[in-house]
Amino acid sequence: MNSRKTIMIIIGVILLLMGVVFALQGANVITNSPVMSGNSNYIYIGGLVALVGLVFLIWTLRMKAAPSPSTPANPPK
Length: 77
What we know:
Elements: H1 3-26, H2 41-62
């Protein structure tokens, strides 16, 4: 696995976790923020951010690794 793919996986996980936290704060499950807690708009925003993170993560995991420059694209048979 190359470093670019690792960074993209980390970004996807962070987006997913942020979305879940936003949604839980909007649903008043996590009550750390007086602005976000109980505000139903953050349920939708969090759900959208979590969905984007999940799609990004799945897309990254399904992405094929690029061939290394030292390996020929069509090896001789």
